[in-house]
């Protein structure tokens, strides 16, 4: 049985209830609650989404709308590490396509896919807000600016050496 099939642990449920209690309306804690779930499981399964919705007194559909709106919340399993290449206009002009192609070739995957060993997921992302330092990417939760293929190779090596 995978962790996605298990109920939310009691400590996580309590943390979500505490968040909800600190808001005028419990649903105001939805993004923070989903981030807690993702921090624990790396993604938000349907079961966990439904449990959080119940804790926040929301419909599952409403909470799924929140989860799918924010591109840093993952509704599908991702690898141990996530590479997110910015594909905004500035990054595109500065070579993000070449960087994405480099990652695809090195990892033998396409954008949106995870390596067979589950180590790395490659995702495009719209604007990370560092346009003056393009091309930019997010590696797990760290922004990297002025990225080139040598930097990508170092990050790939780091990801393959370091489980999260």
Structure, described:
- This is NADH-quinone oxidoreductase subunit E.
- Keywords: 2Fe-2S, Iron, Iron-sulfur, Metal-binding.
- InterPro entries: NuoE-like, NuoE_dom, NuoE_N, Thioredoxin-like_sf.
- With about 160 residues, the protein is α+β, with helices and mostly antiparallel strands.
- It folds into 2 domains: about 5-70, Orthogonal Bundle (Arc Repressor Mutant, subunit A); about 80-160, Glutaredoxin (3-Layer(aba) Sandwich), CATH 3.40.30.
- The protein contains 7 helices and 4 strands.
- The chain has a 4-stranded mixed beta sheet with strand order 2-1-3-4.
- The mean pLDDT is about 95.
Task: Compile the SSE list and pairings.
Layout: H1 10-21, H2 30-41, H3 46-55, H4 60-69, E1 81-86, H5 89-93, H6 96-107, E2 120-125, E3 137-139, E4 142-144, H7 149-161
Helix pairs in contact: 1-2, 2-3, 3-4
- What's the CATH architecture of the largest domain? 3-Layer(aba) Sandwich
Question: What is the C-level CATH assignment of the largest domain?
Answer: Alpha Beta
Return the string of H and E elements: HHHHEHHEEEH
Number of strands: 4
Mean pLDDT, all residues:
94
Give the total of domains. 2
Give the strand content: 5-15%
Radius of gyration computed on alpha carbons: 17 Å
Ends distance: 21 Å
**Approximate helicity band:** 40-55%
CATH homologous superfamily assignment of the largest domain: Glutaredoxin
Instruction: Note the total helix count.
Output: 7
Fold-level CATH name of the largest domain: Glutaredoxin
Unreliable stretches (pLDDT < 50, length at least 5) are none
Largest sheet: 4 strands, mixed
**Class from secondary-structure proportions:** alpha+beta
| Major beta sheet, strand line-up | 2-1-3-4
From the spread of the alpha carbons, the general shape counts as: globular
Family: Belongs to the complex I 24 kDa subunit family.
InterPro entries: NuoE-like (IPR002023), NuoE_dom (IPR042128), NuoE_N (IPR041921), Thioredoxin-like_sf (IPR036249)
Protein name: NADH-quinone oxidoreductase subunit E
Organism: Gluconobacter thailandicus NBRC 3257
